[in-house]
Amino acid sequence: MELRQIRYALSVARERSFTRAAERLNVSQSAVSEQVRLLEESIGFSLFRRTPRGIEVTEAGRTFFYEAERVVGDFDSLGDIARRLKRAPSETFTLAMGSGMAQIVIPKLFRDVPDQLRTVRLDILTAPTRTIFELLAEEKIDAGLAIESDPEHVPPGIVFEPLAEAELTLIAHPSHPLARGTRAVDLGRLVLEPIVMSELSVGYGRVVHAMFAELGIRPNILAVADNIETIKVIVQSGRGLAIVPRACVDVEVALGVLRALPIAPPRNIRMNLYRRRQALSRRKESHFAVVKAALVG
User: Fold this and answer.
1) Tens digit of each residue's pLDDT (9 = 90 or more) over 132-189
2) Which of 93, 122, 125, 256 is disulfide-compatible with 287, CB 3.0–4.6 A?
3) Distance (Å, whole) CA 148 – CA 103
4) Residues whose CB is less than 8 angstroms from the CB of residue 263 and which lie 6 or more positions away in sequence, other chains included
């Protein structure tokens, strides 16, 4: 049994005519008849019978052609699959990033990386800083983007490359009294305000908590969330304030659902590109270098 024989027989079944099938296939009628004959000899039963009204498909033929349509369709789809695989990246590079960092790093990353990593698929996931460290230690990701952390909170064997800095800003619901001003908000004015915080021991949550501690202030913590998206939603509800990287709220500020206010004293936080100390494969070391160059640039 050959695929060509099945295609010819299917064409006859659709056209109900050997002549019209031959015209559609652009071959001679004798070639169609010969291929159908060979197929019927191979399967051991007739697919067609001649009647005064022309060609009809036998009962067995109807069942055979039902399955044949599916088989030919699956075979034809293999060509599409092969073409996609030919174009698809043959390797992956897995990068995890802290919540809210996409607005800061993705434009840089995809402006520069695709042409240089044409054969590499970037797998990007979002996770809290602590989880990024765990995934690196367990060799489940190749690199991680996160806010600077104290060395004691970074697991052994994890090192980092410093990247850009990001400005911290106070966010509030537009109806909040503080949102009416334009001047920098002194942190001391926030002592009684409900504050939404990120996790307190690592990442920018630790930085914000330390800012209050340096002023001898204990923040009135309303909630602790492990991602900036949740923090923004809580602040949008009008229940509290938060201090987050300014670039993380550009969209909400533009839409008018949040106000971003400078803080006094001003504070920037540094983003780091974390990795395992041990070397990656030669190709992944090359990918890491390209990703780092894109983010630094």
Assistant:
1) 998 998 889 999 998 887 777 788 889 998 888 888 999 999 999 999 888 899 998 9
2) 93
3) 18
4) 168, 169, 170, 184, 185, 186, 187, 243
- The three-point CA angle 267-272-277 to 5° equals 150
Pairing of strands 185-186, 263-264: parallel
Residue 49: alpha-carbon gap to chain centroid = 56
CB 248 within 8 A of CB 103: yes
Mean pLDDT within 55-79: 87
Q: Which two tokens stand for residue 181?
A: 């001003």
d(CA 209, CA 169): 14
Whole-angstrom Cα distance, residue 129 to residue 229?
15
Burial of 119 (C-beta count, 10 Å sphere; 0-12/13-18/19+): exposed
HSE-CB at 62 with a 13 A cutoff on CA atoms is: 5
Task: Report whether 261 contacts 177 (CB < 8 A).
Answer: no
What 3 state SS string does the chain have? CCHHHHHHHHHHHHHCCHHHHHHHHCCCHHHHHHHHHHHHHHHCCCCEEEECCEEEECHHHHHHHHHHHHHHHHHHHHHHHHHHHHHCCCEEEEEEECCCCHHHHHHHHHHHHHHHCCCEEEEEEECCHHHHHHHHHCCCCCEEEEECCCHHHCCCCEEEEEEEEEEEEEEECCCCHHHHCCCCEEHHHHCCCEEEEECCCCHHHHHHHHHHHHCCCCCEEEEEECCHHHHHHHHHCCCCEEEEEHHHHHHHHHHCCCEEECEECCCEEEEEEEEECCCCCHHHHHHHHHHHHHHHC
